[in-house]
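Researcher: We're teaching a course module on how sequence relates to structure. For the next exercise, students receive a sequence and then see the predicted structure as tokens, so they can try to spot secondary structure elements on their own. Here is the exercise chain.
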Amino acid sequence: MSRTPNTTPAKSRSRIGTWFDHHLYSLVASFGRMLRKPWSTALTIGVMAVALALPLGLWAALANVERFAGDVQEARQVSLFLKTDVAADRADELAGQLRARADVAAVEHRTPEQGLAELRGSGGLGDTLSHLDGNPLPSLLIVTPKGDEAALTSALAALPEADIVQHDAAWRERLDGWLRFGGRLAWVLAAMLGFGALLVVGNTVRLDIQQRTEEIGVLQLLGATDGFIRRPFLYLGLSYGLVAGALALALLTAADLSLRAPLEELARSYGSDFALRGFGPLAALAIVAAAGVLGWIGAGLVTGHYLRQTRPTDT
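Model: And here is the predicted structure for the students to work with:
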């Protein structure tokens, strides 16, 4: 008795292979269509890259400003200068009592000797300090709050050993306010310019669709699915987005390199080792991928609208 060979797996593999080949062909062909129209492609990619680079540059600037301003915990610290007649043992005891408070995260005790050594090492005061009789500096307790900073500052000021309580809360709150405003501004710019980039890709894909109207009509008459027809245009939008994202990173890198040397020189004049920090590898990949998705969405919206308008109806 003869058996009929089972050709279902082969047909399935053939169908999957064809699907994969068409995706690969659509991706490669999208780059070919871009290269055939260099000026139009350069204009589209350039506009998209600038639209992406502006909010990304603002985000990078805000991140560097936050890093330059110092760690948030350090900005929250309260400096408690004790009276000069408070002995070191009493300062250590007071530091231990403060560490036991529920609204205190940490306490650092700096002795007068440590303060004097720090002043001498800061430069410019060595000769002046050498003429002093004794050490005029008091003990310093640097308190990091855990809860309400204002209530803790008031409690520290009420201590009998306290001489001066220094807390730059107003400065930190103003800085935090500006950073929050900058972050919100970056999101607004990203939304507006991202929408603009989406429109640029959509218009470019629309022009490409108009040039291939007859080809699309033939495919529809032959029974091609919307997905089959849409696929090359989706990859075209994806290609625009990927290249534009890479160009936006290149523009930001060029700006970073042009500003890094003078900024480092300025920071060194203030005794700081601050340096600009750009996007890491993972962040760069995420940016390029997001730009590609943006191009894909723009192409999908335009192509879907066109296909809905031109799909033949059954009579």
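Model: If you want an answer key for the exercise: Residues 241 and 292 are 4 Å apart (CA to CA). The chain has two domains: 22-71+173-310, 84-160.
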